[in-house]
Write a sequence for this structure.
């Protein structure tokens, strides 16, 4: 979503896939009903849910807040704004107490630089298209 919150999921394989990530990414704890980021914010991090639930919402063209989805353990959100360098297109707020892994813009940029040039263009193009589609759907 990227959109503020795309819901890429690692559900079903969290323990195996997340353990190595937890060693290199920062962990953050959030109490229930806490803002993680707000629509329009500059993107500094993307997030992966280790435990808990996160609500993703956006303000539509009529100024009303619309609930987009609830994300769960193993899902990733906030990556689109990092990939395309645009402000957050949605808000993220904890629904329950959450333990999140974070990846910074610098860490993501480093990984993107190591991609094959064709794959980098591919990822950036897909991210931009998803962001445009998400914004026009609101």
């Amino acid at each position: 979503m990227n959109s503020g919150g795309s819901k890429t999921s690692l559900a079903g394989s969290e323990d195996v896939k997340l353990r190595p990530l937890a060693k290199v990414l920062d962990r953050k704890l959030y109490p229930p009903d806490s803002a993680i980021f707000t629509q329009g914010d500059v993107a500094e991090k993307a997030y992966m849910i280790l435990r808990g639930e996160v609500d993703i919402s956006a303000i539509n063209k009529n100024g009303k807040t619309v609930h987009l989805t609830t994300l769960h353990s193993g899902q990733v959100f906030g990556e689109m704004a990092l990939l395309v360098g645009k402000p957050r297109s949605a808000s993220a707020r904890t629904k329950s107490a959450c333990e999140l892994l974070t990846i910074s813009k610098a860490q993501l940029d480093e990984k993107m630089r190591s991609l094959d040039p064709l794959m980098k263009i591919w990822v950036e193009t897909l991210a931009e298209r998803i962001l445009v589609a998400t914004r026009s759907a609101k």
User: Anything to note?
Assistant: DSSP finds four helices and nine strands in the chain.
